[in-house]
# Entry
Amino acid sequence: VWIALLLQAALFTALHSYYQGIQFAPLFVLGLALGGLYIWRGTILSSMFLHAMQNTFTMTMLGLIMWASARAPVLGIEMENADNGVKVVRVIPDSAADEAGLRQGDVITQIMLGGWMAAAPTYQDVPDAQTLRMLLMLQSPGDEVHLTVMRNGESIDVPVTLQQRDGLELNEDDLKEDAGE
# Structure
């Protein structure tokens, strides 16, 4: 029984091979759980029901994350990590960053959050793009944040009123520019 359970879990993992390598261990454990449930209950229906519930939960959570992401506040920049902050690679036209005067090549080093976080405003370091994204997620569209930006060796304060992601529109020329046309 144990060998069959291990083989079943391995087969379950192999059939879900479209996932990346880091997810193989959780898939194997789920395969063991489903196989163990079959052994315990003596029917495949309980395993099928559990798998359907797990898929439903996962898809519901993914949908909620996508919904929240579409409504998340954004600056309207493409960015990359720099040695001392986050470098602005591109400013999307008519975005919050464009209206605030951010420029390509600026390096964002700090952010002071607004909105509900403004009770004790302090500047927070922005060591990488992921940190900046996470800090922006604490805000709402319409909130004002202050960025410390390094431009031509000078540190400047740039106030930016965040906008909603789905309110940010790219026109056809922007898409052609992204495609290298």
Observations:
- Residues 44-70 form the longest helix (27 residues).
- Residues 12 and 31 are 6 Å apart (CA to CA).
